[in-house]
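EI: anyone free to look at a 159-residue chain?
SC: sure, send it
EI:
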Amino acid sequence: MKKTFEVSDKLFELYHRVHRLVNESMTEEGVSLARSKFLFFLSKLGPCRSTDIACALNFAPRTVTEAIDGLERDRLVMRKPDPEDRRAKIVSITETGRAVLQAAEHPRKQLIEEIFSALDDEQLDQLYDIVSKLVEKTDDIRKRKEEAEAAEVAGAHQS
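SC: here you go
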């Protein structure tokens, strides 16, 4: 059991170190990793409501609103009235936002390549397979928890 936790701790340590380095390199180019997630989402899926962004990125609506406020202030995104719901706004990435995102993408990729150059192709394949199994297991656990919660709610409604 000790080895499981040691490996888990190493994975978390790696994640945090890579995250920090990638964030620093992207921030030097004008957009943090967190802000780039919003820009990347909008560049791929196109204009959408902030509630769609919150749902897709699993963020609280308030967090998304604050992030969009900052991105709009920096002219990286813009809001327009939703033609189908006058209370809502449609958010889209601007050309400036696309340029900033593209500029930050190069150092991110370069850094990831440098980090993973410590592994040969066979090790990369093995790591991919191992991480894929762990992702699949976490999905199974999440699904089981959601099913248990749904059954609990259904049982409460029948009482």
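EI: The CA atoms of residues 22 and 111 lie 7 Å apart.
SC: 👍
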